[in-house]
Amino acid sequence: MMPKKRSPVWHPFSQHALQDEITRVIRGDGAYLHTVDGRRIIDAISSWWVVTHGHCHPHIVSAIQKQAEKLNQIIFAGHTHEPAEEVAAQLLKLAPRGLDYVFFSDSGSTSVEVALKMALGYWHNIGKQRIRIVVMQHSYHGDTVGAMSVGARSVFNAAYGPLLFDVTSIPFPARGHEQATLDALESACRNEMPAAFIVEPLILGAGGMLMYPAWVLREMKRICEASDVLFIADEIMTGWGRTGTLFACEQANVTPDIACYSKGLTGGALPLAVTLCRADIFDAHYAKDRTRTFFHSSSYTANPVACAAAKANLDLWQDQECRQHVASVATMQEQAIESFRADPRFENVRRTGTITALDLKAKEAGYFASNGPKLQAFFKGRGLLLRPLGNTIYVMPPYCVTAADLDEIYGGITDAADALTGRRASVA
């Protein structure tokens, strides 16, 4: 028998020497994916956190089809188009008050690159030498060079160390140790005069779904304001209802100086990102002197079809029913995870908005804990798209998920724990 031909496709975050056969998906609808061999999969992580209202939402699909027939691409330098103008205008109405300009890009990583360049360009153009960036321990902001530089140093970026710039890191505000984080930020802002502080509001995603309260976010913004340090909110994952409000910063009643949005911006239909900023950051680049131009772009900046998808997504967010779906999912998630708080095989059972996470107790810790691939393989066999971060299992479904879907998801998590521990939970 001839060996099966290997695909030439190189998949992200996949060790092909260990990877089982790649799942071939042919169709998506709502919270479900359908494979070439006829299986139905519940998308319990919104396909890497991007799908909000569900796969192939008809309103977004229709907008894409209509736009593709009119204008599918145009250089955005010196040109504009209606979908981009509409998206920018609606974003500024929905985003925290005080953000005034919208810069388009293609992905979460590039929106962070844009934010960092905006911050450094601002200080350079007003004649102040402020170049240091402050970050939070365990943070993740993307896989391009600047985004890696402001993320946690680990095996994920060890090979690229020579490319990364140095940063100042403050500790994660673990429960009971929040003041240590605030003190460290205040010290860094006072003593190092950094250009900016970048943070994932309320939840650190790839760092392990680590959650902290809104009052800490509010205090971090206050500290930055006191030292005139630009506050960059990376809401790439936390935006679009994931934390229970449209944007996580709303819960702290803060307006970032620069904000990064992507993932759910198009409802998960097409790649698009934006970086929003205050007027004075734009004004620092506004001059008759061409050398003060903001030098950043990509070929597909503000692609009209992607912008049409974003406009359709933003239309959906204008409907109160959409917000009610978010609240409903948050309630269902809390109910679904409650029983795990008494299961001795799990710890740190937590929820913020529509996101839940829990850690399977094990001797091995970290992303490379051996339980991770075992759990993922188990869930795959159960028709569940769950991608644990080591021993951390998280659920972040589209807002069209049903209570029956969640029962199936959490039933799968219980059964996975049974399979790995060889015993049923002893629940008090």
Q: For the terminal residues, how far apart are their CA atoms? A: 55 Å
Strand content: 15-25%
Largest sheet: 7 strands, mixed
Task: Summarize the amount of helix as a percent range.
Answer: 25-40%
Average pLDDT score: 95
Count the E strands.
16
Can you list the strand order of the major beta sheet?
4-12-11-10-7-5-6
CATH architecture of the largest domain: 3-Layer(aba) Sandwich
Q: What is the global morphology? A: globular
Tell me the domain tally. 2
Q: What series of H and E elements makes up the topology?
A: EEEHHHEHEHEHEEEHEHEEHHHEEHEEH
Structural class: alpha/beta
Which residue ranges are poorly predicted, with pLDDT under 50 across at least 5 consecutive positions? Answer: none
Rg estimate, integer Å: 22 Å
The CATH class assignment of the largest domain is Alpha Beta
The CATH topology of the largest domain is given as Aspartate Aminotransferase, domain 2
Family: Belongs to the class-III pyridoxal-phosphate-dependent aminotransferase family. BioA subfamily.
Binding site for substrate: 48, 140, 263, 297, 387
Protein name: Adenosylmethionine-8-amino-7-oxononanoate aminotransferase
Enzyme class: transferase
Structure at a glance:
This protein is of the alpha/beta class and 428 residues long.
Write out key terms for the chains shown.
428 residues; alpha/beta; Aspartate Aminotransferase, domain 1; Aspartate Aminotransferase, domain 2; 35% helix; globular
Task: Tell me what the structure shows.
The chain has 428 residues and is an alpha/beta fold. It has two domains: 25-43 and 320-421, Aspartate Aminotransferase, domain 1 (Alpha-Beta Complex), CATH 3.90.1150.10; 59-318, Type I PLP-dependent aspartate aminotransferase-like (Major domain) (Aspartate Aminotransferase, domain 2), CATH 3.40.640. Helices cover 35% and strands 15% of the residues. The chain contains 13 helices and 16 strands. It has a seven-stranded mixed beta sheet with strand order 4-12-11-10-7-5-6, sandwiched between helices. The longest helix is centred in the last third of the chain and has 19 residues, at 403-421. The model has no long low-confidence stretch (mean pLDDT 95).
